[in-house]
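DATA CLASS: polypeptide
GOAL: derive C-alpha cells

***
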Amino acid sequence: MFNRKIGIVLLVALAAGLGLAAAQKFFSAPSSPSPWPETGAVTFYPQPRGLPEFSLRQSDGTQLVPGELQGHWTLVFLGFTRCPDVCPTTLADLAQAQKQWETIPEGLRPRVLFVSVDPDRDPPARLGEYAHAFHKDTLAATADIPSLERFATSLGFVFQKVPGKHFDENPDDYSMDHSAGIAVLDPQGRLAGLIRPPLQPKTIADDFTRLTQAIAP
C-alpha cells in the first residue's frame, strides 16, 4: 500500500526541484524595472514567461485555451472539490476580493480560475457548482491528468494523488496533495507572479484594482 509519508516527501522534493528550475529560468534572465504598480500580496518575477499550449475544459463544456486568458489579470489556483480545508478557504478569501472588483468593467475585471486536479471525481458540471458557490464569476476548469500535469508544471506547481487507508478496496478513497500558491497571469496571459498563503483578501483586492487601472485605456 502507498505510504503517505513517502508520498509527501517525494512531493516536497519535486516541488523544490521545480522551484529551483523555475528560479534559475526567471533569475538568469536580466531583470528590468517592473512596469506595474507596487503590490502588497503579489510577488512579481523579474521577467514574465509565456505559457506553453494548453486546453482545459470549462464547467460550461467549452475549452479554455491560452488566447482566452488575455486582456485581464488572472489568478490561477489548483485544487479539488473534496478538499477539506485549503481549497474552500482560498476560494472564500478570493471571493472577498472578487466582491470588491464587481465595480470594475467586466471587460477589464480580474478573473479567478480554479483548476481541479481531480478530474475523475470533478466532472465539469460539479466543478462549476462548487466554484460558483463561492463567487459567480469564478472560472472552473479541468482536463485529463497528463494535460493537468503539463499545465501545473508551467506554473511551477505540483500535485499528487494520495491513496487512503482503504484505497485497495475502494479506489475512491484518496486525497490530492497540491501546491497552495496562486499563480498570477498578466493581461498577455503570461506567468508574471505568485501570491503565497496566508492570503489577505483586502490586500489582494487593492493590488488588482491598481493593476487593472494600470492597463485601463
Observations:
- Residues 1-30 have pLDDT under 50 and may be disordered.
- The helical segments are 4-28, 86-101, 124-132, 145-154, 201-215.
- Residues 124 and 151 are 17 Å apart (CA to CA).
